[in-house]
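User: Last request for today: this protein with inosinic acid, please.
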Amino acid sequence: MTSPVRPVRTLFDEDAIARRNGELAREILAAAPRDLLVVAVLKGSFMFAADLLRALHRVGLAPQVEFVHLSSYRTGTVSTGQVEILRDVQSEVRGRDVLLVDDILESGRTVVFAKDLLMARGANRVLTAVLLEKPGKRAVSIDAEFVGFTCPDVFVVGYGMDAAHAYRQLPFVGVVDFGNGEPDLFPGA
Ligand code: IMP
Ligand code: MG
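Assistant: Here's the final one, the structure of the complex with inosinic acid:
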């Protein structure tokens, strides 16, 4: 049985995301990456990575592209802290500047895991770009060099991110309306 698809309230729309991707690309260019390898963390970052890569091309960068599929175990929408490699990168990372791309930085465990893995394989440096960052949720100490947007403490979907495998196709980031009361996303705003 397929569950009914609930309406989604937009948090970050297509235009805002496209504009921010252009800005992020210029920030990344300013970091003067050498022999750049972009490593996108599947599945959640696929759409962000695809748009960010095109933005990197537009600012004159010519990165190679790799994918790592990581699974961070969750109970419902809460991270349990274990990370597993479902698909590894195939390119040589030794001596290269790596741009790790993920959808969202929450506990930080996924990014720390991926960053440690790439550094252990001899990357020259690993910079991190995340579309979203949820402040105050970190279980491990990590900051991303490039952050698209600060995200309120709600479970978001779309633009690659899912809830129970649904909503990844949405071209914007939003919050699922489960019909049990609207969360106050920006209290005091
Ligand atoms: P972390 O390891 O706790 O930082 O979790 C990061 C991963 O959890 C992300 O790569 C997402 O796949 C997933 N995640 C965390 N928060 C959300 C959310 O609000 N919506 C969808 N996925 C999320
Ligand atoms: Mg993820």
